[in-house]
Amino acid sequence: MNSKHVLQPYWDLALANINADVLTIAIEQHWFDFLSSPYCSADLAKQLHLNVKNVGYYLDILWSMGLLDRQQEANTNYQNSPIAQRYFCSQSVDYIGDAWLFRRKTLTHRGQQLLAQIQADFSPTLTEQNVIEQNWAKAANKQIAQEQQAITKHTALGIIKSLPDAAKCQKLLDLGGGPGFIAIELIKAMPALSGVIFDFPNTTDVAQQNIIQAGLTKRLSVMSGNIVTDPIGGGYDLIWCSSVLHFLPNTSEVLVKIYNALNSGGVLISAHAEITTDRNVAKRVLPYYLSMQIQGRPLLAAGKLAQLFAEIGFVQIEQQHNITFPVAPVSLVIARKA
């Protein structure tokens, strides 16, 4: 009688919207900035001009989510948990509040389109492609930048530092690098490395400003274009490519271009989601990529990308799975040019 009912995971799905709504309010109204210090619900409500009684209910929800610690004294005091302090307090260098709101808004919008998408074929028009480029540049300036700063750059640096030939790399290409914080982190950490960030023109404008702010203009530059139709340069010892191949009409053609851009012995690191047979991983990956799949964006079966690398001529191919990435885990493929 005390065991969890088999339907509980599906009831939890319905309840998740309430948690998401509460977190949305807390981020938008900057509750976590106040809650860097202990607050009782009455004092917080007074600061924010909110209903005293109801604020307490909301704070309890945030406590139940692990975002607040609770001290039950004469007046119950609430304060940010370490997770909330690091990622949802706007003064933190790892703040991702805007990125979280962006992801929720985007995924909610996609969910509302699912029925229409499953009832009809979908293919992006040229106008829609232009909108995609504009939106990507806008996101790179804020939301993607927050995720790269807080999460992705640390993951990338850890992966690359673990390579036995990392110290020999002198020229980097960050392919589809967005705001450029991955490349910036790598250049800072590896004194012998210089590099290029490749992305759409409006996005590389964002990356260039971040390069200037980091003081790395002598070692890091940008290249603008479309990866499918434009050259990406050459002579690279290391290419980082994450969450890019899903958007390409022909993955193999671009992989050939990447292969040709590498020096002999050069390393390609690919971080992309795959369709896995592991149910626990699949339930974290598939919802995020469902809308993309319906639009015809390729999400390859596990091992397929490594197979394509081998067919093109890459050698010493290694795979790692369930790598930490924003929103959903990715699979890592490390491959070298002979």
Report how far apart the termini are. 61 Å
Q: Tell me the count of domains.
A: 2
Shape: globular
Number of strands: 10
| H/I helix tally | 13
Instruction: Please state how the strands of the largest beta sheet are arranged side by side.
Output: 6-5-4-7-8-10-9
CATH-defined topology of the largest domain:
Rossmann fold
Low-confidence stretches: none
Q: What percent of residues are in strands?
A: 15-25%
Oligomeric assembly: single chain
Mean pLDDT: 92
What does this structure look like?
The chain is of the alpha/beta class. The protein folds into two domains: 8-95, Arc Repressor Mutant, subunit A, CATH 1.10.10; 98-337, Rossmann fold. 50% of the residues lie in helices and 18% in strands. It has 13 helices and ten strands. It has helices at 8-28, 31-34, 41-48, 52-64, 82-87, 97-119, 126-141, 143-161, 181-189, 201-214, 251-261, 279-294, 304-312; strands at residues 39-40, 68-71, 77-80, 171-175, 194-199, 220-224, 236-242, 262-272, 314-323, 330-337. Strands 6-5-4-7-8-10-9 form a seven-stranded mixed β-sheet, with helices on both faces. A three-stranded antiparallel β-sheet has the order 1-3-2. Strand 5 (194-199), helix 10 and strand 6 form a beta-alpha-beta unit. Helix 1 (8-28) packs across helix 6 (97-119), helix 3 packs across helix 4 (52-64) and helix 8 packs parallel to helix 9. The N and C termini lie far apart (61 Å). The mean pLDDT is 92.
